[in-house]
């Protein structure tokens, strides 16, 4: 029997090999990108989602597919029911003994995300997916459609129990607190205030952006542009019309440097946001190893590059949000890099917030536990109410 693991690239290259060594050292593994595209005699084969085509080619070339269990790690990567690369895997799903999906955030943009994941996980099963075989019928049963052409379907809350009833036989869901002895996690907000002239510029930018927004249809795209532009301002730098970065302030960097805890993991949403002395996260094994040896004093990176599947808990217990994210998935995944098995100290999460700005609106959307477009619209509504 062979275990075939599909995972995001960095998780496949860095996390899974180490997990095999830590948890099942009696097993051997083969990282297909490094060790060559052949079956070998290892029990665990690891590849990333971008290499699905090569796996299918290997099966055709060798005319072989062993009794396999397939694992789709971070299976939200497979949430599109129309993904061509997943479609090419359908014959292999049908020949697999078991197929499992693993994720800590199964529905980052709402329950509609579940349909595609179950479609692929159940592709080789004798029974059909609990969510049906047609996306349109799933939407019709569990969602209401907006009147506007591109409106996102809205989940019908009265159908929640029915949805959970159907999923229950196929879904093992546990909160980490139920089966892991994790240390406490504490949130500390660092509030800073703009001086009067800077706040006047911020309000002028906000006013002009809302005028532009209100002249057209309010969509997730237009709302996202507005929120992102204001977050750039509160982060300290903005892009002009020619994509040139303009310095606005360095108040957040100064606030972060006053934090006493080290090592310090810093989450930023924009590449131009910098903190003096912080090493930029590049995803390399060398940098991750140095971090986990506590050889890096401060490390800064984007939540989506360092927030999924990586083990960073040995390097520190303090995270700071330079830029708050309205993405519930990004927030939960990033904080879980430190607050996870193997962490020996209480985790501290700092959030640097400019008072009276979009930063507070984003935090409000997170408090509401909204996801995806809902979080964006919650933030937008809160922004409108701010004076």
Number of helices: 17
Biggest beta sheet summary: 6 strands, parallel
Number of strands: 15
List the uncertain runs: none
- Span between N and C termini? 63 Å
Walk me through what this model shows:
With 387 residues, the chain is of the alpha/beta class. The protein has 2 domains: 2-177, Rossmann fold; 185-385, 3-Layer(aba) Sandwich (Rossmann fold), CATH 3.40.50. The protein is built from 17 helices and 15 strands. Helix 15 links the parallel strand 14 (318-321) and strand 15 (347-354). Helix 11 crosses helix 17. The longest helix has 19 residues, at 196-214. The protein is globular.
Quick overview:
The protein is an alpha/beta fold and 387 residues long. It is 40% helix and 17% strand.
Element layout with pairings:
Blueprint: E1 2-7, H1 9-23, E2 29-31, H2 32-35, E3 44-48, H3 52-62, E4 68-73, H4 84-87, H5 90-95, E5 98-102, H6 113-121, H7 135-142, E6 143-144, E7 154-155, H8 160-167, H9 176-179, E8 185-192, H10 196-214, H11 220-235, E9 237-239, E10 245-247, H12 251-257, E11 264-267, E12 279-280, H13 285-292, E13 298-301, H14 303-306, E14 318-321, H15 328-335, E15 347-354, H16 358-367, H17 372-385
Parallel strand pairs: 1-3, 1-4, 2-3, 4-5, 8-15, 11-13, 11-14, 12-13, 14-15
Antiparallel strand pairs: 6-7, 9-10
Helix pairs in contact: 10-11, 11-17, 16-17
């Amino acid at each position: 029997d062979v275990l075939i693991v599909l995972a995001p690239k960095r998780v496949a290259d860095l996390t899974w090999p180490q997990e095999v060594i830590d948890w099942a050292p009696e097993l051997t593994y083969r990282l297909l990108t490094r060790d060559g595209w052949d079956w070998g005699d290892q029990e665990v084969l690891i590849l990333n989602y971008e290499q699905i085509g090569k796996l299918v080619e290997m099966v055709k070339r060798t005319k072989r597919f062993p009794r396999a269990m397939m694992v789709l790690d971070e299976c939200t990567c497979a949430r599109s029911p129309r993904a061509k690369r997943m479609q090419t895997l359908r014959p292999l799903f049908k020949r697999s003994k078991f197929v499992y999906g693993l994720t800590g955030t199964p529905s980052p943009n709402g329950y509609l995300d579940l349909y595609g994941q179950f479609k692929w996980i159940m592709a080789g099963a004798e029974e059909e997916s609990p969510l049906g075989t047609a996306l349109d019928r799933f939407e019709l049963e569990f969602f209401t459609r907006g009147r506007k052409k591109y409106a996102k379907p809205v989940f019908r809350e009265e159908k929640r129990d029915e949805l959970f009833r159907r999923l229950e036989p196929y879904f093992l869901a546990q909160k980490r607190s139920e089966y892991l002895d994790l240390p406490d996690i504490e949130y500390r907000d660092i509030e800073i205030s703009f001086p009067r002239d800077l706040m006047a510029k911020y309000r002028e930018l906000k006013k002009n952006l809302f005028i532009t927004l209100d002249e057209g249809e309010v969509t997730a795209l237009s709302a996202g542009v507005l929120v992102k532009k204001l977050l750039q301002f509160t982060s300290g730098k903005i892009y002009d019309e020619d994509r040139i970065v303009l310095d606005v302030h360095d108040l957040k960097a100064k606030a972060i440097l006053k934090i006493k805890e080290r090592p310090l993991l810093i989450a930023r949403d924009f590449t131009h946001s910098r903190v003096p002395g912080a090493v930029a996260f590049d995803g390399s094994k060398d940098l991750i190893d140095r971090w986990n040896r506590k050889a890096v004093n401060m490390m800064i990176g984007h939540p989506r590059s360092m927030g999924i599947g990586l083990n960073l808990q040995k390097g520190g217990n303090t995270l700071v949000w330079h830029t708050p994210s309205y993405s519930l998935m990004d927030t939960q995944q990033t904080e879980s890099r430190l607050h996870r098995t193997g962490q020996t100290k209480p985790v501290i999460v700092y959030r640097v917030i400019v008072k009276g700005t979009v930063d507070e609106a984003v935090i409000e959307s997170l408090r509401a536990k909204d996801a995806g477009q809902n979080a964006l619209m919650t933030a937008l509504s809160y922004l409108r109410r701010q004076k």
